[in-house]
Amino acid sequence: MGRSYKQLSLDDRCEIACLSANGSSVRQIAAALDRSPSTVSRE
């Protein structure tokens, strides 16, 4: 039916920061976290 939404956890945000600092693309980070690229790009 409807989509279930949940906020990113602090761990997810830290992972995004680490992967981004290491040069990973938004799409690579999104795939690693099983999130959409648009969610990752907003962080």
Counting DSSP E segments of at least 2 residues, the number of strands comes to 0
| Percent of residues in helices | 55-70%
- Determine the number of helices (DSSP H or I, runs of at least 4 residues): 3
Largest sheet composition = none
- List the helices and strands in order: HHH
User: Strand portion, in percent?
Assistant: under 5%
Indicate the structural class: mainly alpha
Low-confidence stretches: none
Terminal residue distance: 27 Å
Mean pLDDT: 91
Query: What gross morphology would you assign?
Result: globular
Number of domains: 1
What Rg, in angstroms, do the CA atoms define? 11 Å
Question: Can you lay out the helices and strands and say which pair or pack?
Answer:
Elements: H1 10-21, H2 26-33, H3 37-41
Overview of this protein structure:
The chain is mainly alpha-helical. It has one domain (10-41). It is 58% helix and 0% strand. It has three helices and no strands. The protein has helices at 10-21, 26-33, 37-41. It is globular, with a radius of gyration of 11 Å. It starts with 9 loop residues before the first helix and ends with a helix. The relative contact order is 0.18.
